[in-house]
Amino acid sequence: SYELTQPPSVSVSPGQTARITCSGDALPKQYAYWYQQKPGQAPVLVIYKDNERPSGISERFSGSRSGTTVTLTISGVQAEDEADYYCQSADSSGTYVFGTGTKVTVL
Amino acid sequence: QVTLRESGPALVKPTQTLTLTCTFSGFSLSTSGMCVSWIRQPPGKALEWLALIDWADDKYYSTSLKTRLTISKDTSKNQVVLTMTNMDPVDTATYYCARVLGSRGEFDSWGQGTLVTVSS
What we know:
Low-confidence stretches of chain A: none
Helix content of chain A: under 10%
Shape of chain B: globular
Strand content of chain B: over 45%
Largest sheet of chain A: 6 strands, mixed
Oligomer: heterodimer
Radius of gyration of chain A: 13 Å
Mean pLDDT of chain B: 96
Distance between the termini of chain A: 36 Å
Radius of gyration of chain B: 13 Å
Strand content of chain A: 35-45%
Number of strands of chain B: 11
Structural class of chain A: mainly beta
Largest sheet of chain B: 7 strands, mixed
């Protein structure tokens, strides 16, 4: 199985933009997904199929990709965005993988 | 409204077999494109994908854990069961089940998770 690598932490001031990267060799061939997890809670899907936003998710969340790297961007960061974020993808054999996780701190 | 709920023992002893049940509502696992997956998260650590079963009863397992895992479904009861053999303290984690939309799709709905501690 392959790995998805994320930075352990990202710090951002309120109102600024946070960018979280996710790198993996198989990413160019499969969609990427992003989840937000707050302490003591289950993960919540915030981006699917690289850049689609589920119903009810703020427009401040967006996704993009370039080669073997995908990026979750949070614009106009708010205190409520402080959480752990995980990327996720799958390989051609039908197995799934989650990224190493990034803790977003709002200063 | 889609809901999922995990159930099972909170404490298991080393070498025992863990059996977890995911009971869901709001969708049918006999509908094309529907899948249910198990994911775990050790305290303070990242999410780890474990297994998935789809509407056609195809099963997929984590490469590193496949020898210890078995996933099955009971469509009539809206349940998916995961068994993990030879439990070890490193398997202490919160175990989640989630609905997955389509092959290699998104985990769009999650259960609240159940904490399983492995200790003698």
